[in-house]
Amino acid sequence: MFARWLQRQWFQRRLTPALLFLLWPLLPLHALFVLVSGWQRRRAQPQRLPVPVLVVGNLTVGGAGKTPLTLWLARRLAARGWQPGIVSRGYGRRGDGVVAVTADSVASEVGDEPLLLARRSGVPVYVGRDRGAAARALLAAQPQVDLILCDDGLQHLRLARDVELAVFDGRGAGNGWRLPLGPLREPLSRLSTVDAVIGNFSGAATMLPPGVELPAGPAYFPMTLQPGRFERLDRPAAAVEAGYFAGRRVHALAGIGDPGRFFATLLGLGIDFVAHPFPDHHAYTVADLSFAGDDILLMTEKDAVKCLALVPGEAWYLPVEAELPPALIELVEEKLRGRQAA
Q1: pLDDT score for 245
Q2: Per-residue pLDDT, 116
Q3: Low-confidence ranges of the chain (pLDDT < 50)
Q4: DSSP H stretches of helix in the chain
């Protein structure tokens, strides 16, 4: 509860009196955090892999749309002749070691997002706290892989990279402050070193997410998430349109970085429901879902990989597909080809 309240304060785009009163004892810690992170960046000795590395990350805490973007990149690059593999930390899983992720893996052991990627991407997926070690294990097991996509690795300085993409959602940079006073993992000046900024929100193509100013250097690309048909949790082959839920008692849950984004999508589809937001990467229990009873339950695909054994009644999830300008893949491939030629 406190974590959700704190994030709401961060993303109000100002330092509220309540937040300042609560966190003012942490100001020295905040200053120390800034100094140490800067020192770590200057001292870092990145590990270079034998294949190019593309990192997808964000500057803010919580999800911003990295996983749909990673999936889009994997498919587009594979269509252009690359053979990508994906590495990720596997946030929220048990253990830190390197693990290969398959479609039959358990989310608590590999992480919800890597499991979703393994089921949807069709490429090898490995997780590990040390992304370099995970990538080396992947390359040893899958020697045909000629490109590593690192999902959520912008701050993982030990892994050298050739392309960096930074993603923001509609919450933008929040109040613009770094942790713990705001949602930023790194200062916004970090954007001057990335290759492109991706805006995952419903604004116009020329607009930046709130609070984000683009420095000279990186290109900007808008991203939208297009909903597909709802798929039944226990029978994915069964798919329905939003009209199926008209006039029925529906609950909706979302344990993502911004649950409101999922709820807004459902409202846009004309679905009437009771909303149940959960923290990002929430580890669901049967008790968490007891509110549903005999009613229909709707959820995100990221939640679905964790809820199959917990829902006795009728439950559906909504897959989404990222849509981005073709110019992004042109930029990415130009950078990757440059690494190969070097």
Answers
A1: 97
A2: 96
A3: none
A4: 2-10, 17-23, 27-43, 66-79, 107-110, 112-121, 131-141, 259-268, 301-307, 326-341
Contact at 8 Å (CB) between 98 and 131? no
- Classify each residue of 15-49 as buried b or exposed e, where b means 16 or more C-beta atoms within 10 Å of its C-beta: beeebeeebeeeeeebeeeeeebeeeeeeeeebeb
Q: Where do the structural domains in the chain lie, given as residue ranges?
A: 43-82+146-224+323-341, 229-318
DSSP string spanning 221-236? EEEEEEE--EEETTEE
Distance CA 141, CA 137 (A): 6
CA atoms within 13 A on the CB side of 161: 26
User: Tell me: the pLDDT tens digits for 182-200?
Assistant: 888 888 999 999 999 999 9
Spacing of C-alpha 39 from chain mean position = 27
pLDDT at residue 14 in the model? 64
Query: What are 125's two structure tokens?
Result: 């997926």
Fold of 43-82+146-224+323-341: Rossmann fold (3.40.50)
65 Cβ contact list (under 8 Å, min separation 6): 167, 169, 198, 200, 223, 225, 322
Give pLDDT tens digits for 145-180: 999 999 988 888 889 999 999 999 988 888 888 887
Backbone phi, psi, residue 200, to 5°: -95, 80
Phi, then psi, of 135 in degrees rounded to 5:
-65, -40
Report CA-CA distances (Å) from 173 to 14, 60, 153, 214: 10, 7, 18, 12
Contacts of 103 (CB under 8 A, 6+ apart): 115, 118, 119
The pTM (predicted TM-score) of the whole model is 0.90
Strand order in the sheet with 84-88: 99-101, 125-127, 84-88, 147-151, 53-57, 163-169, 196-200, 219-227, 320-323
